[in-house]
């Protein structure tokens, strides 16, 4: 039985496609966006998050760790992530849930069971299931298998992707995907390399091919002040997108919600101090798109 | 739009300070002293009402179009010494308490002390009830195993149907006479009793007609004095209406409202029945009048709206009569639970939504009053536009209207043996109770504290709070070898306690039937006239007795916790768990964390927990459902708490689900606090696994912050949630849409948030009127943000 690694199954998801949906977050991503608000989705491996504010300094975790990966400093636990084998014992025994295990292996069968639990809401609302991440295309065999099962069950499917993958992966799943939520982050390749860590040519090519085939596409554009809220990027995007067949564009203003997660994972955050774009700027950008005749929405 | 007239009346209603009026007590006292022993009890009760309606001070408020107050002016609140004879200390408490107070004058205290107490102390129903209960019953009552509804208020819980819009009281009186003439003194041993009941009903008809006539006279008097020509004309018009209804059937929209209001006043003056009284399917009753008058140009939407608004204010002017002790704890509110239904189905099964239904929603939206409560009956035939219009009001976050599944309500009634027409013309009242309007006496008798019964089970019959043995010995829980053994022990305790409650109920029903008939209410509930029987004595067509289950979310999580941690995973032993509970988890934070955070919980669509919920639900259902009551009907269950979940929590120590001692229980069938972590669909799926159709109502609360329900999409999603829950046969759902921040601020600065209304449990209340514990509980209820 095929299985995959997921972070979370989010029920009553109302911003990831039409209707009431279940969003499955798959773990692992080839991109490293500076603004990523789900840093726990980047690594392909399971991880343990530490919520500093929940720690009651009881030292229970130190005693439970078989690898001696936890040492107490000023009655606060410090984890040596090199020694840690992610057995999860410290998370199980933390009396205040200051440690949470991120990432779970799940079989297609078990995942389908969870997805099907909310079928009545999908039917009523015209919703379904959305696969997000991370980058769901990374676990293509698992994704393909789950999509096939969803189609057998007549459940509406959406895939939220960065597009950074080999076209043949799209080819595998395209007949089982009712809607693509496709990210468009930076038109400028140099900047793309700098802020995301990979070039953007395959992303743009794949999007064009999807459009040519006639797939249903919603474009999702994160807007980060000083990085991609400049007129040049907006005009380039409009030029590119108006040549394609796009149903709707969602502008997603940068938010800081992910900031604490970096700390919990022991990672650095490149954008500390970054503010969210102003409402005025968001409206200006939205108007640019509108005047080119595109259906635009601020937010998911 | 609110007219200037309505705005003023509304403001006066809101700022009026509730106080105790002794007018009623004095009249009741006089009538009893004069007539007790010389007439039959039903006739005595009818004479009480007749004297009340003949002597009470009348009141027409400036500018109002619908007239009549229960007291001498708005929010003047009478006492009912024949039900509950308050001590002078009770009066002091009512006067002094911070919440739900009633101001009591020195004069009132003096009357109570010198006139009322000496005569009524040992004549009140409360006295008779407590005197007739067994020691076991009293121990359970003191321990908080169950509450008793009838110790301070009368049975009622019923709703008007359409008959008062088709017949006047002269016609009712004629029917009563016919029924007397048809009595069979040759063969019917009860013929004389019936004659007395019917005589009393006829006197009760006189009482309401006297009230109407007196209001007509007062309006004429006031018109003569009135300088403003417009108001003069209005008063003359009121006089004209009051000299027609209630004696005759209403001819116009306005007369229909006035007719209902006179009926309402008589029901709540005769006794103080639970849930006061209720026009029920108001949109259905008013529509024929509305349609006819609008078509001939005598009425327009604006005028109808203003009349309805005036009507609304009348409800708000009548706070629930003062309660004390446990009754106050289980129902701590000024709301008297008149709960107006809109939408639903017609008798022929077609969609009931009409223009008046929309009009009623507009009135609810604009009036924003605590009373009356309002609800929308949603069937699969209900137009989406209507549901969304209702949800737009819900989204404003003050807790009205609540939403009911009309199709489920009909099925519940059919299962209980009602005809399809009676079922379709029924609805829900009080908090969430299903009833055949105008035809059923459905009496709620008290709440049953399910988690407390588990606590007693885990202590082998002992109540740890009092140290008394109040249950039976069902074995030392540390010796149980399986979860099933524990559950069997729980079922034995449950059986024992339900026995005690049901016996108590039957005795109390008999006491009410013999000592406290309600001839007026009997006139308007089928088939009291044709049977010659009182409402309290089995005269209604359907007679149901409810015991309301409380804390299903908590008991499910408690049993799940034990099954999962002690028996399945062996995370700790029963002794360890009991020790942790005894210490209120002090020094056992690891166990508390395991049971609180790492154990399956009801409310997440997790079958492990939800199957245990079903098991407890059926155990309760099987224990109660079908036991005969004393009025020719049976006992049934429903699942609602009013404010009792706070009181019930306060008598229970720490529980196996990690809840600390004395904290509130979950309300209705909602998951316990913080247990639902998978969002609203998880809650709805879990709650949908209960068999709602075999109950007489269940209550589910969901709290959202405003951002979740923003915009057209937010509204659509809310509607989808409602429709999905109703597809699963869910009975009722209600939403609280207030940010946590707002609530915290309101708690700190009550003066700035005086008008903040929140959903409590099946009804709404001013947040600032709630006790601190209840406020905290509402703040803590899971905030669903996604």
Structural class of chain A, by secondary structure, is: alpha/beta
Give me the number of helical elements of chain B: 31
- Our Rg estimate of chain A from Cα atoms comes to 20 Å
Supply the helix-strand structural class of chain B.
Answer: alpha/beta
Shape of chain A, please? globular
Largest sheet of chain B: 5 strands, mixed
H/I helix tally of chain A: 11
The quaternary structure here is heterodimer
CATH class of the largest domain in chain A: Alpha Beta
Pfam families (chain A): Fer4, Radical_SAM
Catalytic activity (chain A): glycyl-[protein] + reduced [flavodoxin] + S-adenosyl-L-methionine = glycin-2-yl radical-[protein] + semiquinone [flavodoxin] + 5'-deoxyadenosine + L-methionine + H(+)
Domain 4Fe-4S ferredoxin-type (chain A): 46-74, 75-104
Keywords (chain A): 4Fe-4S, Iron, Iron-sulfur, Metal-binding, Oxidoreductase, S-adenosyl-L-methionine
Would you give an account of this structure?
- The complex is a heterodimer of chains A (300) and B (786).
- Chain A has two domains: 3-44 and 104-298, Aldolase class I (TIM Barrel, Alpha-Beta Barrel), CATH 3.20.20.70; 47-102, Alpha-Beta Plaits.
- Chain A has eleven helices and 13 strands.
- Chain A has a nine-stranded mixed β-sheet with strand order 7-1-2-8-9-10-11-12-13. A two-stranded antiparallel sheet of chain A has the order 3-6. Chain A has a two-stranded antiparallel sheet with strand order 4-5.
- In chain A, α9 (231-242) links the parallel β11 and β12.
- By secondary structure, chain A is an alpha/beta fold.
- Chain A has helices at residues 60-64, 89-93, 108-117, 119-125, 140-152, 167-173, 189-196, 201-213, 231-242, 259-264, 279-291, and strands at residues 3-13, 21-26, 47-50, 70-73, 76-79, 99-102, 104-107, 128-132, 156-161, 179-183, 217-223, 248-253, 296-298.
- The model of chain A has no long low-confidence stretch (mean pLDDT 91).
- Chain B has 786 residues and is α/β, with parallel strands linked by helices.
- Chain B has a domain at 444-512 and 539-699.
- Helix content of chain B is 50%, strand content 9%.
- In chain B, α3 (41-55) packs parallel to α9 (191-225) and α8 packs antiparallel against α9.
- The radius of gyration of chain B is 26 Å and the shape is globular.
- The model of chain B has no long low-confidence stretch (mean pLDDT 94).
- Chain A binds chain B through residues 10-14, 19-20, 56, 58, 60, 92-97, 117-118, 120-121, 124-125, 127, and chain B through 589-590, 592-593, 597-598, 605, 678-682, 684-685, 708, 713-714, 716-717, 720-721, 723-724, 727-728, 784, 786.
- Chain B: InterPro entries: Gly_radical, Glycl_HYPD, GRE, PFL2/GDeHydtase_fam, PFL_dom.
- Chain B: Keywords: Lyase, Organic radical.
């Amino acid at each position: 039985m095929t299985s995959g690694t997921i972070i979370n199954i989010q029920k009553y998801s109302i911003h990831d496609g039409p209707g009431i949906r279940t969003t499955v977050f798959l773990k692992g991503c080839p991109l490293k966006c500076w603004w990523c608000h789900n840093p726990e989705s980047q690594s392909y491996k399971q991880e343990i998050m530490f919520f500093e504010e929940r720690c009651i300094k009881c030292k229970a975790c130190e005693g439970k760790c078989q690898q001696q990966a936890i040492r107490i400093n000023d009655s606060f636990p410090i984890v040596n992530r090199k020694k840690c084998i992610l057995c999860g014992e410290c998370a199980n025994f933390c009396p205040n849930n200051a440690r949470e295990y991120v990432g779970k292996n799940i079989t297609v069968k078990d995942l389908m069971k969870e997805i099907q639990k909310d079928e009545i809401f999908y039917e009523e609302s015209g919703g379904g299931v959305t696969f997000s991440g991370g980058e769901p295309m990374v676990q293509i065999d698992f994704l393909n298998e789950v999509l096939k099962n969803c189609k057998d069950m007549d459940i509406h499917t959406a895939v939220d992707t960065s597009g950074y993958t080999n076209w043949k992966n799209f080819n595998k799943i395209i007949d089982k995907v009712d809607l693509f939520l496709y990210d468009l982050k930076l038109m400028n390749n140099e900047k793309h390399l700098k802020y995301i860590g990979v070039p953007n040519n395959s992303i743009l090519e794949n999007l064009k091919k999807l459009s040519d085939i006639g797939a249903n596409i919603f474009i999702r554009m994160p807007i980060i002040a000083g990085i991609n809220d400049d007129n040049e990027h907006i005009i380039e995007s409009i030029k590119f997108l108006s040549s394609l067949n796009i149903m709707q564009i969602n502008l997603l203003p940068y938010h800081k919600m992910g900031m604490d997660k970096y700390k919990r994972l022991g990672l650095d955050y490149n954008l500390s101090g970054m503010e969210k774009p102003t409402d005025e700027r968001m409206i200006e950008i939205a108007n640019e798109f509108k005047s080119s005749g595109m259906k635009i929405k601020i937010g998911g | 739009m609110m007219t200037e007239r309505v705005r003023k009346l509304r403001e006066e209603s809101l700022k009026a300070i509730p106080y105790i009026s002794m007018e009623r007590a004095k009249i009741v006292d006089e009538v009893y002293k004069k007539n007790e022993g010389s007439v039959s009890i039903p006739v005595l009760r009818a004479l009480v009402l007749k004297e009340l309606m003949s002597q009470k001070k009348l009141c027409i408020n400036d500018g109002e179009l619908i007239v009549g107050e229960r007291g001498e002016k708005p929010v003047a609140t009478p006492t009912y010494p024949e039900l509950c004879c308050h001590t002078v200390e009770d009066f002091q408490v009512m006067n002094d308490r911070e919440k739900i107070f009633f101001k009591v004058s020195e004069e009132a205290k003096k009357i109570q002390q010198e006139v009322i107490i000496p005569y009524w102390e040992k004549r009140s129903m409360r006295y008779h009830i407590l005197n007739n209960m067994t020691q076991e019953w009293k121990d359970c009552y003191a321990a908080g195993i169950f509450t008793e509804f009838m110790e301070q208020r009368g049975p009622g819980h019923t709703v008007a149907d359409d008959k008062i819009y088709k017949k006047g009281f002269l016609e009712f009186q004629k029917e009563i006479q016919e029924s007397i003439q048809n009595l069979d003194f040759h063969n019917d041993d009860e013929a004389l009793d019936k004659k007395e009941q019917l005589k009393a009903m006829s006197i009760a008809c006189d009482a309401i007609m006297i009230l109407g006539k007196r209001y007509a006279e007062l309006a004429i008097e006031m018109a003569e004095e009135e300088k403003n020509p417009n108001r003069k004309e209005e008063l003359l018009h009121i006089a004209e209406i009051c000299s027609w209804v209630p004696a005759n059937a209403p001819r116009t929209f306005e007369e229909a409202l006035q007719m209902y209001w006179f009926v309402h006043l008589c029901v709540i003056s005769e006794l103080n029945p639970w849930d006061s009284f209720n026009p029920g399917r108001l949109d259905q009753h008013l529509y024929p009048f509305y349609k006819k008058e609008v078509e001939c140009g005598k009425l327009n939407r604006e005028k109808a709206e203003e009349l309805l608004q005036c009507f609304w204010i009348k409800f708000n002017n009548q706070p629930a009569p003062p309660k004390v002790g446990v009754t106050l704890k289980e129902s701590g509110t000024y709301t008297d639970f008149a709960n107006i239904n809109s939408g639903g189905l017609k008798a022929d099964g077609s969609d009931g939504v009409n223009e008046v239904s929309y009009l009623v929603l507009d009135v609810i939206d604009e009036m924003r009053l605590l009373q009356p409560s309002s609800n929308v009956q949603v069937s699969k035939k209900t137009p989406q536009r209507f549901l969304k219009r209702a949800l737009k009001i819900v989204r404003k976050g003050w807790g009205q209207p609540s939403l009911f599944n009309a199709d489920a309500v009909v099925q519940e009634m059919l299962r209980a043996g009602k005809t399809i027409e009676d079922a379709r013309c029924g609805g829900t009242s009080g908090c969430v109770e299903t009833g055949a309007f105008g035809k059923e006496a459905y009496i709620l008798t008290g709440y049953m504290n399910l988690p407390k019964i588990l606590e007693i089970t885990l202590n082998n019959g002992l109540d740890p709070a009092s140290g008394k043995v109040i249950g039976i010995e069902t074995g030392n829980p540390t010796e149980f070898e399986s979860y099933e053994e524990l559950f069997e022990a729980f079922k034995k305790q449950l059986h024992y306690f339900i026995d005690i409650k049901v016996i108590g109920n039957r005795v109390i029903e008999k006491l009410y039937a013999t000592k406290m008939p309600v001839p007026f209410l009997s006139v308007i509930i089928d088939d009291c006239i044709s049977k010659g029987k009182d409402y309290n004595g089995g005269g209604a067509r359907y007679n149901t007795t409810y015991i309301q289950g409380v804390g299903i979310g908590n008991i499910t999580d408690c049993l799940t916790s034990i099954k999962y941690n002690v028996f399945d995973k062996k995370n700790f032993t029963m002794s360890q768990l009991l020790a942790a509970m005894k210490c209120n988890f002090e020094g056992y934070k690891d166990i508390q964390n395991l049971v609180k955070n790492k154990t399956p919980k009801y409310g997440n669509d997790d079958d492990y927990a939800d199957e245990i919920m079903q098991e407890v639900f059926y155990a309760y259902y099987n224990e109660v459902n079908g036991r005969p009551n004393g009025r020719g009907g049976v006992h049934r269950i429903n699942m609602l708490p009013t404010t009792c979940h706070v009181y019930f929590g306060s008598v229970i120590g720490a529980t196996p689900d990690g809840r600390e001692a004395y904290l509130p229980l979950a309300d209705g069938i909602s998951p316990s606090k913080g247990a639902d972590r998978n969002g609203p669909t998880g809650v709805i799926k879990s709650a949908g696994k209960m068999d709602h159709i075999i109950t007489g109502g269940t209550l589910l609360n969901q709290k959202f912050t405003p951002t979740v329900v923003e915009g057209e999409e937010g509204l659509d999603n809310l509607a989808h949630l409602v429709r999905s829950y109703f597809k699963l046969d869910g009975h009722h759902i209600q939403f609280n849409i207030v940010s946590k921040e707002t609530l915290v601020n309101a708690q700190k600065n009550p003066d700035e948030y005086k008008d903040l209304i929140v959903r409590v449990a099946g009804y709404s209340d001013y947040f600032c009127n709630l006790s601190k514990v209840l406020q905290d509980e509402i703040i803590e209820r899971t905030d669903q943000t996604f």
